[in-house]
Structures
1.
Amino acid sequence: MSSSTGPATDLDQVIVPAVPPVHLLTGDVPALQVTDRLHRGSQIIGRFETSGMVGFKVSAQGRPLRVTLGLSTDDRSVSGWHTGRTEPAGPGPRFVQIRSQGRLRQCVLLRGRKSHARVSFDLTPEEIPDDGLVCIEALDVTEGDGVSEDVREALKGRVAPDGVAGVRLNKVVFEEPPAVDYDPDTLDGIRCEFYTLISAGGLANLNRQGTRQIRAGMFLVNPALKDRFGSSGRITFRLGTKAEPASLIPATWRRVNSELRWLRHAAKKMVHAAAPSVERVFSLRDGDLGTPEVSVRGNVTELTVPSPTNSPLLVMLAPVPGAVPTLECGIQG
């Protein structure tokens, strides 16, 4: 039966927009209006087949929005999971771009079978259309435009292919940005990742604080939120190394050489010569940024970069035999 006010019928579904502040935790909410290569979930928003998109209708009412996403991987996060013809996950971490309203916002590295990541970015009122549709894309680093070919070439063989396959979108939060954010001048490595300023393979145990191991051999520096840590113009990252315990070195015919490398690294630590080496720094949009601004003091390397605004930075570290690079802290200003 037609309504007297237009072509809609009494059976048409009423679209209820999400009204901030709101935490969306399931895929059956009416505000989820658009899905592309995402299977909706009942206890999560959904799981991506491969690179895809979601679109939410949000009642922003002319206000800016802060958008926060929770992502994770599990045993089903493999190519072809939705067809039953699965392929093993490739070596290296997953490198995922998060875009919204057509712009690259942040990137994350997800390392291992079970890892978690947070993404957080702000949308201005001008970026939110009159119909309130907020679109969020998750793309593999090899896809989409606006990523430098220098970056893609440098990542060949170092990141997993089809990085979005099976990734879970656990939750989406829409809220108005706080009027003032208070932050210290220094954040330890674990908190840098919790704040989404860096991504080094997935969130560490948030009950701990301290250094963040960088087992992927690289980390991302994301554009900081307005007035949050890292937005003051320049950031210095203090990097160190952690020797692998001898018990973790595989018991193979090469074990003796591995143990010798570990001992050499331990000796370097003793004489304050075990600082990690920064190979290259890239802007995802502009490519190689040239010789990085680095200073070495004993076992610590300090890397200073400009606070990224429109494009994440990729920091690539040289391998350290018998040891793991670590991010001790970030210092802003």
Note: The domain at 17-184 is CATH 2.60.120.260 (Jelly Rolls).
2.
Amino acid sequence: MNLIKELGNKFVNLYDNLTNSDSSWNRQYDFYLIFGQTDENKSPWIANNWKSDFQPYFDLLIKQTENVKEIGIKAIKYKPEKRISKKDNKEFIFHSDIKLGRLKWDEKSHDKWTIPNDLKEYFLNLEIWKPIWTICDKRQTPPDIYITISNERDFENKRDLKFGYFIVVSIAKNLKIDSKPILRELSEKINSKATIFKTRRWNQPEKTGNWTFVNWIQHTFSNGIYKGSNLHSFDFNELEFEPVWEVIYQQK
């Protein structure tokens, strides 16, 4: 009986380690969604906006962690090029990928991935991993902080937008960072259409109310998470955030 009890206790401890340990992919996070204004001139990927309105607040979060040099950034942006169609010999605009190289959390890298105010380049997406994804893979643990910024426009700006950009901020709860005041102040600064908060595990799909997350936190996009449809297909003012989410800020 003692052997069975001992084995049972070991199984319980192993299960607890797999589901609750901060070293597992089941890590728990403060999980925020920020819906940005539709005015493209206020977008976070414009260099001046990033440096004055966004970067300072993300700095406040990131600098509360250890080994800031371990941060990695992925960014995708394009530049328009005039080309001639081989089929009909007509001119068309082709958007070619801009090679940015390895990006870090420093001014040189920020200058690479952001866009000057002329908006000739097209920004698609930014990911910030702390620590970088290669370290996460090596340690077999999700990041301390994960942030994404997505441009909700298409190349030709033909989409009926309800919000211009979509930001996901995830902060591991065991870091004990008081993130709400920081992200509330950021949201007030940019007058976000809405900033909402809930607790979520990194690798745990979930469905609560009208909100469904079928993949891990790193796969969170605006399409499909509300009633299985694209968020831009709804009247933004009629989206039901509560009680699933805590509303941190709404535009004034």
Note: Residues 1-23 have pLDDT under 50 and may be disordered.
